[in-house]
């Protein structure tokens, strides 16, 4: 069973998804879909509320940036990466591997 449909995703508009007790930020960029941990490693802010530029997302609270492809932290004040998830797209179905 898929976690969501491609129709649920708008290009560069992140969405928050709960799966198995984990909060996940899912973002579609062009034909690619990325999933990283939704909670900023600097503060308890939801990354799904942030802005997407290229393949990075900026936390709305303090401006820390993360790579959507890997979860790697790209700028202060965050210093720790967030988890990255494998995304499987099959037709219109999007599944996040936990």
UniProtKB/TrEMBL annotation:
Molecular function via GO:
2 iron, 2 sulfur cluster binding; metal ion binding
Q: Which UniProt keywords apply?
A: 2Fe-2S, Iron, Iron-sulfur, Metal-binding
Q: Where is the Rieske domain?
A: 1-96
Write the protein's name: Unannotated protein
Naturally occurring in which organism (per UniProt)? freshwater metagenome
């Amino acid at each position: 069973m898929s976690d969501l449909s491609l129709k649920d995703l708008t290009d560069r508009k992140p969405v928050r998804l709960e799966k198995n007790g984990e909060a996940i930020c899912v973002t579609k960029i062009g034909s690619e879909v990325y999933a990283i941990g939704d909670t900023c490693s600097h503060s308890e802010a939801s990354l799904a509320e942030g802005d997407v530029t290229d393949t990075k997302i900026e936390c709305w609270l303090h401006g820390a940036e993360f790579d959507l492809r890997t979860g790697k932290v790209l700028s202060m004040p965050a210093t720790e990466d967030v988890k990255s998830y494998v995304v499987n797209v099959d037709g219109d179905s999007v599944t996040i591997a936990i």
